[in-house]
Amino acid sequence: MKKPSDHLFKLIKTLTKSEKRAFRINAMVGKDAKKYVAIFDAIDNQEVYDEVAIKEKFAKEKWIGRFNAAKDYVYRALLNELAAYNQKHEPQYQLTDFLVHIRVLQSKGFYKRCSKLIEKAKALAIELGDHLKLLELLNLEGLNHPGGINPNNAEDIKKQQLSVFKMLEIEADFEALYKRTYQINSRTGYTNFDQEAIEAFDEIMKHPLLNITKMPETFKAKRQYINIHYFYARGKGQGEDMHYWILKAKDLFESNPKLIKQHAVNYATTLLNLQSSFLGQNQYAKAADTIELLRSFYPKNQLKKHERLTYIIEYASLHHEIISYNKMGDFEKAVQEIPRLEKYLIKHEQEVSHSVTVRHYYLLALSYFGKGEFKLCKQQLNLMLKISAVGLREDLRKEAKMLMLIIWVETKKFDLLEYELRAEQRYFQRNGGINELEKLLFKMLNFACNHFSDIEKALQTLSAVKKTLKNKKFTPSYSEILFWFEAELTNKTYLELVRFHST
Question: How many domains, in total, are found in the chain?
């Protein structure tokens, strides 16, 4: 049996209160208006689309036999209303309106009036960085004359057109460079670059456009220029440079409030990156302020307007907030927020990628581990490792496997620990090899198998770990595992060490 289409349901669920109100008001015309509004309301009231329930609700209505046709009518009517609504409220739609109005007025011979509209529209196009529409407007300006060709400022229009063509060409070049860097980031899992990635990115960074002293002129080109430099700094583990480019991105958006509204998802992503950067610098107050800005910059009554934006503001912001609590050692707060995070995960399942789900379970595992709830930590690690295919966020997968070994120590499963330790060493060897830090950690775990009976050698190994970390950065960093080891070998607790390193 064919599954009923839910495209109308999905569209309705993205509407703001204002958009719903506008539809209900404007749809209340004609003899069938009540029918269509009733269908709209019935679908709007559902949490999950259930066409059978709707048909049962309207079983006595004569039109129910033609329900699919009625549903399609509501869908088209809603799209028309959204187009009309957005033309009034969104600058980019207003620009489209200008183009239509200018063409209509030109066809009626109102050339003087067109000149005024063209100037207003050009100013808006420049403000929004929409150079394709600016070209259309320049073309209309060149035709704005009874003779069909405007002789008054032909040279000036030509200069403006050539300037726009040049800017669009530069934008296209930056877009191509960005796509190449994005592919490198995707392949490396958005973590520190391997040697192959560094060499490929180094070659890209030699491009003349990426070495200009003055930033590009257009908004799109500036964005890609910043993104490329940010990717490069992040991939090479250059925290200060990365922070610099995130702030550049934030300043670029905030230079024009219309840009924030037009590119809300990109601005929200920038704020998430900024919050993570503040966390990396242990600037918790600034990280918290950034999360609050993320949750407040977009009007709540418009929040369902874009599924991705809602996902970032609700799920991603809370995910990052829980990371903050864990980093500060406030595991009680982190665990308290887990039910809300899981609710958002279900709510935004369409936006949640496989990689995000892996990070979700690992975050929960770390929260429970910090609170000492090892059984729950183990459950989350098992869920994560079950869905995490080899190669997908291999850094988190290795951290999870190392943390699971710690769980066997905490739950006194020493016989199991010995067996699992050998198995995980083989796994690490098969998947990228065992680096210098990991060799020392496995050595520490061997001491754990013997209940840390040789405490002096264990402390020497811990000292070697710290010395190794001073000389080199590792991905993953295994910071939680290292805190645990130090707590086992000293008079300090795990919580004390987490809080000490967060200051």
Answer: 5
> What's the mean per-residue pLDDT of the chain?
88
Burial 24-40 (b: 16+ CB within 10 A, else e): beebeeeeeeebbbbbb
Pair 346, 456 in one domain: no
Q: Of 71, 89, 107, which residue sits at a domain end?
A: 89
Percent of the chain with pLDDT over 90: 51
pTM: 0.81
Residue 157 counted as domain residue? no
> How far, in Å, CA of 259 to CA of 122, rounded?
16
Q: Give the tokens for residue 421.
A: 């330790």
pLDDT tens-digit map of 127-169: 888 889 999 999 999 988 888 888 878 889 999 999 999 999 9
* DSSP letters spanning 401-462: HHHHHHHHHHTT-HHHHHHHHHHHHHHHHHTT---HHHHHHHHHHHHHHTTT--HHHHHHHH
The C-alpha angle with vertex 392 and arms to 280 and 433, in degrees rounded to 5, equals 85
Domain that holds residue 395: 389-503
Query: Do residues 485 and 472 share a domain?
Result: yes
Structure tokens at 98: 């200008």
Condensed to tens digits (0 to 9), the pLDDT of residues 316-364 reads 999 999 999 999 999 999 999 999 999 999 988 888 888 889 999 999 9
